[in-house]
Amino acid sequence: MVGEKKTAGATADATKALSGWTPRPGYEQGADRALQLANEIGYTFKPNRLLDQGVLGQYSASHVEPQMSVVRPNEPLGVSKDMCTNCQDFYKVLAKYRQVEQVVRDPSGTWSFTPERMVMKWLGQKWRSLKMAELEILSSLIQRVTESVRAAPAHDLSLGLRQKIWMLMGSERVPGPGYSRRAALALAAARHVLPLWELKYPQDRTPHWALDLAEEVRVGRLDKGEAQARWQQAWDHMVELSYSDADDQRGAAAGFSAALALRTCLEDEVLPQSEVDEGLRDNRIDAEDMDASMFAAAAYAGGPSWDASPDPVRRLQFWGWWLFDAVPDAYRSVAS
């Protein structure tokens, strides 16, 4: 059967295409036009000299996703096989060129490619091990939070919305499943930006030992009294660095993220005692009450959201990673 080895794609109006450049009855053919479009938008399909048949990039351009981008421009698309990295890269450039979000659903989930060149994926493989009720609640919140982040001028994720996500991870405090997931999430955020610290302070191992201690606390192998004293030491060190390196605070922000990941493992995140204020921002709480993810986002973007100099697109990219990779990984790390 053709469909068993070809990738099929279709839009909501039942327009269909198959991978390849040979015309087939009932299917649109757009491989040549996809190759032309790639040239127009400045994208080069990865060549395959064995399969391109003398036209470099032809094989990748004949994949159903690029074809449907010219057959039905900007229409949400469903495909029968997982997107390859070549098609993902093409859609990143295409979304920026057209300034229109491009949506593709494959068997592993739904991809969203935005004009900011942010790539998001929801309801995919990382959510499959969750119970259906958990899946529906979490995925609904993630999608709503994503819309909020994209709409915000600085592409910031409010503290209030982060608190809602933390609370959905479980009401249990130390040492229950909810705490363990929040601790895992804080550690993931700090580790994600640790290379920015290493670029700035290659000889300083403070965040490394802070994260090692945090992991020991999380699994119950270290006395909290000793770890509390070391947390204060790490925090004070980051405060001094943030004063001395005011022009480039990416490294210091990454260090604060590690210190606060240790604090989360010691005490859990600060959760509201009453109804969550979704509009609550980080600049409305004390500095010591901020969390690892806020500082990780600041490190990735080049500064906090209230500063005029950071890169909002990089902040959007960080929160996309946090929402669609770090959160489901942290949730799945602990059984319900």
Helix and strand topology:
Layout: H1 2-5, E1 8-10, E2 16-18, H2 31-41, H3 58-61, H4 64-71, E3 77-79, H5 85-98, E4 102-106, E5 109-113, E6 119-122, H6 132-151, H7 159-168, H8 177-200, H9 206-218, H10 224-244, H11 250-267, H12 292-301, H13 312-332
Parallel strand pairs: 3-4
Antiparallel strand pairs: 1-2, 1-3, 4-5, 5-6
Helix pairs in contact: 2-4, 6-13, 8-9, 8-11, 8-12, 8-13, 9-10, 9-11, 10-11, 11-12, 12-13
Region (Disordered): 1-25
Biased composition (Low complexity): 8-17
Domain Immunity protein Imm5: 142-328
Instruction: Provide mean pLDDT, rounded.
Output: 87
> What sequence of helices (H) and strands (E) makes up the elements?
HEEHHHEHEEEHHHHHHHH
Span between termini: 43 Å
The beta-strand count equals 6
As a whole number of angstroms, the C-alpha radius of gyration is 23 Å
Q: What sort of overall outline do the alpha carbons produce when their principal axes are compared?
A: elongated
Content-based structural category: alpha+beta
Largest beta-sheet details: 6 strands, mixed
User: Number of domains in the coordinates?
Assistant: 2
**H/I helix tally:** 13
The residue fraction in helices comes out at: 40-55%
Strand order of the largest sheet: 2-1-3-4-5-6
- Percent range for β-strand residues: 5-15%
Task: Note poorly predicted spans.
Answer: none
Q: Can you describe what's shown?
A:
- InterPro entries: Imm5, SsdA-like_C.
- The protein has 336 residues and is α+β, with helices and mostly antiparallel strands.
- It folds into two domains: 116 residues, no CATH class; 206 residues, no CATH class.
- The chain has a six-stranded mixed β-sheet, sandwiched between helices.
- Strand 4 and strand 5 form a beta hairpin.
- Helix 8 packs antiparallel against helix 9.
- It is elongated, with a radius of gyration of 23 Å.
- The model has no long low-confidence stretch (mean pLDDT 87).
